[in-house]
Amino acid sequence: MTPASRQFTEQLGIDVPLICGAMYPCSNPELVAAVSKAGGIGVVQPISLVYVHGYDFREGIRKIREQTDRPIGFNAIVEKSARTYEERMRGWVDVALEEGVRFFVTALGNPSWVVEKVHAAGGLVYHDVTSRRWAEKARDCGVDGLICVNERAGGHAGDKPYLALFEEMQSLELPLVCAGGIGDPVAFAEVLDAGYAAAQLGTRFIATDECTAHDDYKQAILDAREEDIVLTEWLSGVPCSIIKTPYVEKVGTKAGPIARRLLRGRKTKHWMRTIYALRSLWQLKRASLQGLSYKDVWQAGKSAGSINSVVPAGEVVRRFAAGL
Ligand SMILES: Cc1cc2nc3c(=O)[nH]c(=O)nc-3n(C[C@H](O)[C@H](O)[C@H](O)COP(=O)(O)O)c2cc1C
To answer: Which of 1, 68, 113, 286 is the 20 to 30 A CA-CA neighbour of 257?
Structure first.
């Protein structure tokens, strides 16, 4: 292991510098637990835990805890949006801290309030970034590390290759985690050799036994080639990587002209994003649970091109660790 990776694993109290990133709607408790149990770290996606998998939030965390006492993480999407959403997120962060979670991944907004709460409890906050501008803001908020989301990532993708992103962020002197495009042990070793302290994976962990996503979704990942992964705007208003299914080919990947104007407007973009987010949460949940019987909108990154089998999540962690 490189010194950066060793420092990362020691900081988090884990064995392998590998994060199973939060995934709405795919982060079910069994998946999070299996990754942490195997020595990586699984991250809880609270909206997924409560609204897709049907747990009371605290009960969901305890369900994971029944399966492993190894460290787990929590994902706080901190985008400015409806007050009730922010209040709920604040409540979940408090409960996560009470239940012993000490690793937090923030995304899409200003992480200051999360940093304040988590640091007071002795925990760590890593923030998702796609460019230096957002990384500097996050550093000024006091985050402990950056998750560098590149152009190959599943979910909300960045627009830069992983090496360019590393060079752009390196002088900030924070631990850097690579997110995007890592589907096999070779790619994992490459990003760590390049200087990243760790890697965050999403798509690879959907194609596992413990992930409760529909088998059609898993099969679509196995079947997809890199060129079958396309960016769409109409899911959340920001570019999001999905599999080009016949349904996606039919509806296209662009938001309509009025929606685009509203998404860019200073005053209108927040409520437009909220509308998009609510619509997409519902659509992704149905597609993930119902498979081909529903309009298929399945998020996945370009790593899908290198994923050929559904295996236990712990096996993914062990195979990746063996390549180090
Ligand atoms: C289906 C799916 C849902 C995701 N949902 C979230 C989310 O709710 N919050 C978040 O911070 N990142 C989310 N991500 C991003 C992942 O945590 C991770 O950074 C990304 O998947 C890494 O790229 P990869 O899929 O190429 O491995 C999602 C990714 C996928 C594939």
So the answer is: 286
